[in-house]
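Private note to self, pasted from the team thread so I don't lose it. C-alpha cells:
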C-alpha cells in the first residue's frame, strides 16, 4: 500500500497567499516563499501552489515567483493557474515545478491534457476539479465549476474525472466547493465516488477542520492524499500533528 500524502496548498492572489470560505471572502495568509520554506521544514510530503485568479483574469502566473518558491523547497512542488498551452506548462516546469495542474484550460480544450501528458509524462499532469453539489433538483451529483468557482460549466464532475484519466491525467485534485474553508470536513461522499471511478490518485481538498477529517478522507473517502490550507497557514494544526495522529490510527504516512 502506498503511503498517504499530506499536502499544504498555497492559494496565491497578486503575489500573496490567501484563504477564503467557499472561494470567497479572501484573507491574507502570508508570503508564499516563506510559507513554502516553513512547510518543507515541517515535513510536508508535497506542496501545491495555485494562482487562484490567473484563469479568470486571463493573466499568466509570474514565473519568477514560482522559481523563488522552487528554490526554497526540496519536496515535490505542483503549480497551477492560468496554464493554457503546452508552452505555458513547459515554462512552469522549467521554472522549477515538478508537476502542474490544469483546470479551466483543460475543460475548454480537453486535448491539452493528452498533449501535455505525451510531452511531459502523465506523472506531472494533475487535473484540478472544483465540484459543487447540484441542489436545483432531486438529482444527486456534482457539477464542475471554473474561473475560481464562478462559472458552472454544466458537466458532471465524475464523468469529467473519468475522461481526464482517459486523456492522460496522472492525478486528480478534487476540491469540494461546498466544504472549502468551512472546517466542517472533506466531502467524503464526493471523494469516495471519485476514487471509485478512476485508478489514478485522488487528492481530497476543501473542508479540513480537525484531525478526524484527514482520517475520514483517506479511509472512508479513499483519497491517496489530503490537501489543506487555512489550518496549516494559521497554525491551528501542524503537519507533524496530522501525521502522528494518522499513524496512531494505522494509516500509513511518509
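Design output:
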Amino acid at each position: 500500500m502506498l503511503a498517504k500524502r499530506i499536502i499544504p496548498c498555497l492559494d496565491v492572489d497578486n503575489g500573496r497567499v490567501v484563504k477564503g470560505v467557499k472561494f470567497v471572502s479572501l484573507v491574507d495568509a502570508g508570503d508564499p516563499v516563506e510559507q513554502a520554506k516553513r512547510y518543507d521544514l515541517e515535513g510536508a510530503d508535497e506542496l501545491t501552489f495555485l494562482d487562484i485568479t490567473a484563469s479568470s483574469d486571463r493573466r499568466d502566473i509570474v514565473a519568477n515567483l514560482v522559481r523563488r518558491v522552487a528554490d526554497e523547497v526540496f519536496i515535490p512542488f505542483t503549480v497551477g493557474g492560468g496554464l493554457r498551452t503546452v508552452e505555458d506548462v513547459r515554462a512552469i516546469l522549467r521554472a522549477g515545478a515538478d508537476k502542474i495542474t490544469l483546470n479551466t484550460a483543460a475543460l475548454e480544450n480537453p486535448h491539452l491534457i493528452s498533449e501535455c501528458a505525451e510531452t511531459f509524462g502523465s506523472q506531472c499532469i494533475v487535473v484540478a476539479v472544483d465540484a459543487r453539489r447540484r441542489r436545483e433538483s432531486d438529482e444527486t451529483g456534482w457539477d464542475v465549476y471554473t474561473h475560481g468557482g464562478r462559472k458552472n460549466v454544466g458537466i458532471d464532475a465524475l464523468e469529467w474525472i473519468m475522461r481526464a484519466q482517459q486523456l492522460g491525467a496522472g492525478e486528480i485534485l478534487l476540491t469540494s466547493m461546498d466544504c472549502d474553508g468551512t472546517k466542517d470536513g472533506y466531502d467524503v461522499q464526493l471523494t469516495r465516488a471519485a476514487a471509485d471511478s478512476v485508478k489514478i490518485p485522488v487528492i481530497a481538498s476543501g473542508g479540513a477542520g480537525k484531525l478526524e477529517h484527514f482520517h475520514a478522507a483517506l479511509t472512508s473517502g479513499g483519497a491517496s492524499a489530503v490537501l489543506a490550507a487555512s489550518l496549516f497557514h494559521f497554525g491551528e494544526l501542524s503537519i507533524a500533528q496530522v501525521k502522528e495522529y494518522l499513524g496512531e490510527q494505522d494509516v500509513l504516512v511518509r
